[in-house]
């Protein structure tokens, strides 16, 4: 069953070829933009790599860069084919090229759509990665003398000031870890000894936060220590007053930032996907309408073009069968190589 059959007079074929040429070059630019967006997202993710537990989220920018580069090649050839379609004598040279070209093009176009879907669907993976990464970052904040962790304090401080956040979930996360190095503690002090003894793990815990949690917009000088002790500060009530530190956790701030970035990129790449689909549909109509002109003296006759010669299922199987046969043959060869020969007498 032929899908989307249409009649194409000569003038309509010319306009289709000209439109395809213009559309393919517009989509080439869009493909370059897709690659650039993937690079931007990759760079932003790498900037905060120290507060991420894994790199699973990098599959999104990696895919965008791959499909962006593939789009450049796909649309370059689409433009050349559209240009040659204006001359019935030059178009037949593309006949053997078009079938594998459509297979590759459809694969990368579907991959582009998957990249868009992943940019919206990876929120859970990103959140869990940030949760563990930030927890470790806070835990290693004090290890400025430990190789591999000496920049952790600087990274966390810059992060909290840039995103105006404090802690992982909120500022109370700093109460649960010793974020002041033993190097800066006076162990002869009674207060220090009492705090360490009162903790099962022998850690120096305080109800305070690093300076990077301070909110410069607050009119009151920053209160970093004894945040939960009303009597330690004049005219202060932590339960009723707005604290002059950042309240929101960094996990939520980073998650909102990255999801906003990926959603914006996803919307842009979706428009590129629609453009790419239009190029392939136009090229397919041009191909099938030009096939009827091949070998004819009068190239200005009216022809018919279609999207699919068979149904969708039959067309998909036509492309998959050679691949499946190749994989089956390869598997049989491997099994034959692994089978031991008869033992010598």
What does this structure look like?
- Belongs to the PRPH2/ROM1 family.
- The chain has 345 residues and is mostly helical.
- It is built from eight helices and two strands; from the N terminus they run E-H-H-H-H-H-H-H-E-H.
- A two-stranded antiparallel sheet has the order 1-2.
- Helix 1 packs antiparallel against helix 2, helix 3 (95-121) packs antiparallel against helix 7 and helix 4 (123-139) runs antiparallel to helix 7 (250-291).
- It is elongated and about 105 Å long.
- The model has no long low-confidence stretch (mean pLDDT 86).
Q: What helical percentage do the residues reach?
A: 55-70%
Q: Which class of secondary structure composition applies to the elements?
A: mainly alpha
User: Can you list the strand order of the major beta sheet?
Assistant: 1-2
Could you tell me the radius of gyration in angstroms? 31 Å
Ends apart, CA distance between termini: 62 Å
- How large is the share of residues in beta strands? under 5%
Subcellular location: Membrane
InterPro entries: Peripherin/rom-1, Peripherin/rom-1_CS, Peripherin_LEL, Tetraspanin/Peripherin, Tetraspanin_EC2_sf
Organism: Mugilogobius chulae (yellowstripe goby)
Transmembrane segments: 58-79, 100-122, 265-286
Tell me the layout of helices and strands.
Elements: E1 6-8, H1 10-47, H2 59-84, H3 95-121, H4 123-139, H5 152-163, H6 190-197, H7 250-291, E2 303-305, H8 312-338
Antiparallel strand pairs: 1-2
